[in-house]
Amino acid sequence: MSDRNFLVISYAARKDFDEQALTRILDSAPDWVRFAPGGWLIWTSRTPREWYARLRKVMQDGDNILIFEANLGNRAGFMPSSFWQFIKTKTAQDTGEEVIDDVTGA
């Protein structure tokens, strides 16, 4: 079992922020998916504080950021199937289980 988990990053940035710089930082995670404008789910062994320290480098005055662990065992919602597949693939890697075809959020 790995020490990786999901973190949610919510980032409200100025209109002229450097999205490529942000993406380069996110690319240092083993994997991530953008689920909304300013919203990412990352698969990582790093803590929210470590990610904040990394992302703080591209932030400017007036930007807001929130980073927290996501407990995806208790969830509900409607997202594209690729999002659910991302979660199932990562949790299957962590548990050694086979990824199943059912990618609804239920």
Summarize the structure.
This protein is an alpha+beta fold.
Please provide a written account of the structure.
A four-stranded antiparallel sheet has the order 2-3-1-4, sandwiched between helices. It is of the alpha+beta class and 106 residues long. The radius of gyration is 14 Å and the shape is globular. It contains three helices and four strands; from the N terminus they run βαββαβα. The protein has a domain at 5-74: 2-Layer Sandwich (Alpha-Beta Plaits), CATH 3.30.70.
Descriptive tags:
single chain, about 110 residues, alpha+beta, Alpha-Beta Plaits, 4-stranded antiparallel sheet
CATH class of the domain at 5-74: Alpha Beta
β-strand number: 4
Structural class: alpha+beta
Name the strands of the widest sheet in spatial order: 2-3-1-4
From the 3D coordinates, which CATH architecture of the domain at 5-74 would you assign?
2-Layer Sandwich
Strand-residue proportion: 15-25%
* Arithmetic mean of pLDDT: 87
User: What share of residues is helical?
Assistant: 25-40%
Shape, per Cα inertia axes: globular
**CATH fold category name of the domain at 5-74:** Alpha-Beta Plaits
Order of helices and strands: EHEEHEH
Radius of gyration from the CA trace? 14 Å
**N- to C-terminal separation?**
24 Å
The residue ranges in which pLDDT falls below 50 over 5 or more consecutive positions are 97-106
Largest sheet: 4 strands, antiparallel
Total DSSP helices = 3
What is the topological layout?
Layout: E1 5-12, H1 19-26, E2 31-36, E3 39-44, H2 48-55, E4 64-69, H3 81-95
Antiparallel strand pairs: 1-3, 1-4, 2-3
